[in-house]
Specification:
347 residues, Rossmann fold, 3 domains
Length: 347
């Protein structure tokens, strides 16, 4: 096979030359046209993927190799935090006269990989991504690296990976939330969280454990509940709390919507919040301000996180700075104290 010069955009003519067929045959095979034999289609598609061929829906932009489009890969769409991040991204991207393509994985790593391929073929100039619960590696982002397409990860990331990441100090946030409950007199603190494969939940758990240790409270595995954050998941978590022989006197829950559902079920069961069980949530969702009692939470500055991620990417694309010089950007978070955790009264 003839070599392809590094950095050159692969065309159907390159594939045709290497396999020994016409460009028209390659074009039809890539469109899965049945007029081309299965064997030939497979051969062409394998080579196309190996060479990093991308479909070209932006022919008018091909000369510049730019589409002025940014791809955003999200793990969900229906959370206050994510909508805040998107608002921050959109503000920066719109001002820079770039367009957005938004896709979401619905917490499915296979769909995440498919979305990444889709954005690659749509020739996005850069990607901003937050990983699904069960994403095991970053192999599906290597295609962008092969074309020097920058990727910025936010919130859910692999903290030890290369590339730019925008996060909060999840360890400190978990530590602060747990320490606050301890300061309110809680000695048996449950922790409701989600997949520890993700940095955000693993680090919050680490902060929770460290706070217990620093205050000489024993860590109890039976007080840990790992589940999702949808309503049915939160109901299941609340039932597990109620089924405990020795109820906790405090709960640190790493999602405000989940915390609101758990709190309501506990109240329905006759448990007083915060007198019997004090509760701290996470994200500073708007729901925390309307439930009763109002929810103590960690403010997770999604809008600012979105702005920082987008600005890092756009400035890199414009040549204003090299984002590869900065590995991790840490956004400040803070504990917001409301009635749901104040066993000792207002402060």
């Amino acid at each position: 096979m003839k070599g392809i010069k590094d950095g050159k955009e692969i065309t159907i003519y390159d594939i045709a030359e290497q396999i020994g067929v016409s460009p028209a045959t390659v074009s039809r095979a890539l469109k899965n046209n049945p007029s081309i034999s299965i064997v030939t289609r497979q051969k062409i598609n394998v080579l196309a993927e190996k060479l990093g061929y991308r479909h070209n829906p932006f022919a008018s932009s091909l000369r510049l190799q730019k589409t002025h489009t940014i791809g955003v890969i999200l793990h969900e769409l229906n959370s206050y935090f994510i909508t805040s991040v998107l608002a921050g991204i959109e503000k920066v991207v719109t001002e820079a006269k770039y367009n957005l393509i938004i896709v979401h994985s619905a917490e499915n790593p296979n769909l995440e990989a498919a979305n990444a391929r889709n954005l690659f073929h749509k020739r996005v100039d850069g990607v901003i991504a937050s990983l699904s619960f069960d994403t095991e590696d970053l192999n599906h982002f290597k295609q962008f690296q092969s074309k020097n397409i920058p990727v910025v990860f936010f919130d859910r990331v692999f903290e030890n990976s290369d590339g730019t990441k925008v996060i909060i100090n999840n360890f400190q946030a978990g530590y602060d939330a747990t320490s606050h409950l301890i300061q309110q007199g809680c000695k048996r603190i449950a922790h409701i969280t989600s997949s520890l494969k993700r940095n955000v939940y693993a680090e919050r758990m680490r902060g929770y454990k460290q706070a217990l240790q620093d205050h000489k409270l024993k860590f109890d595995e039976k007080l840990i509940i790992i589940d999702g954050f949808k309503e049915e998941d939160a109901i299941r978590s609340a039932k597990r709390i109620l089924a405990m022989k020795n109820l906790p006197d405090g709960i640190f829950i790493t999602n405000d919507f989940c915390a609101a559902v758990v709190m309501q079920l506990l109240k329905d069961a006759g448990i007083r919040i915060p007198q019997d069980i004090a509760i701290v949530g996470f994200n500073n969702d708007s729901i925390g301000k309307v439930i009763s009692p109002k929810l103590t939470t960690i403010n997770y500055p999604g809008f600012e996180m979105g702005q920082v991620a987008a600005r890092s990417l756009i400035d890199h694309l414009k040549g204003l700075w090299d984002m590869n010089l900065t590995n991790t950007v840490v956004i400040k978070s803070e504990l917001i104290i409301r009635e749901s955790s104040l066993k000792k009264g207002k402060k």
